[in-house]
Amino acid sequence: MSEKMRTYEYPFRLTPAEDGGWVISCRDLPEAISQAAADEACTEVAAGCLQAALEGYLRYGMTLPAPSPTQAGEVLIAPPLETLAKVALYSAMEETKVSKSELARRLGVDEKEVRRMLDPGHGSKIPRIAQAVEALGRRLQLTLA
Questions:
Q1: What is the distance between the alpha carbons of residues 55 and 53, in angstroms, rounded to a whole number?
Q2: Euclidean distance between CA atoms 7 and 100, whole angstroms
Q3: Is 123 exposed, middle or buried (0-12, 13-18, 19+ CB in 10 A)?
Q4: What's the rounded Cα separation, in Å, for the pair 49 and 78?
């Protein structure tokens, strides 16, 4: 198994908006930009923004950029656990250059099941995604920070 550890927490900048509230943006994911009212929880808005951006990468088969180190004035935002697992599977498939049909063969399932595991709109069980990640020689790991 690979010892390379990868996280999917992205640095977001919360900038005061001219007309009040906040502009929320991520340098690593330029499409992840949003706005929050002054009384909204900015980190919750940023988390939703991150989830939407990551779902776009999955849907359109785009290469996901790695998070860069946090700079002054930025906060780290992580996606929800299920999205995180799907993104980790997607990234592992990209890194190992294993197709959906090859992964399905390794798991002994129909390719439709692999497509569902990668579909951000389809509910998936974390243990099943972890099994798919293991079939790629990686390990899905949850850490508490």
A1: 5
A2: 23
A3: exposed
A4: 11
Confidence class for position 2, pLDDT limits 50, 70, 90: very low
Asked if residue 33 lies in contact with residue 45, where contact means CB atoms within 8 angstroms, the answer is no
Topology of the domain comprising 10-77: Double Stranded RNA Binding Domain (3.30.160)
Q: What is the pTM of this model?
A: 0.84
User: Can you name the CATH fold of 81-134?
Assistant: 434 Repressor (Amino-terminal Domain) (1.10.260)
Q: Could you report the per-residue pLDDT of 33-68, keeping only the tens digit for each? A: 999 988 788 899 999 999 999 999 999 989 999 999
Task: Find the helix or strand (DSSP H, E) in which 129 lies.
Answer: helix 126-134
Looking at residue 100, its amino acid is K
Phi, psi for residue 82 in degrees, rounded to 5: -65, -40
Give domain limits for the chain: 10-77, 81-134
CA distance linking residue 24 with residue 13, whole number of Å: 6
Question: Which H or E run contains 34?
Answer: strand 33-36
Asked if the model's pLDDT at residue 3 lies above 70, the reply is no
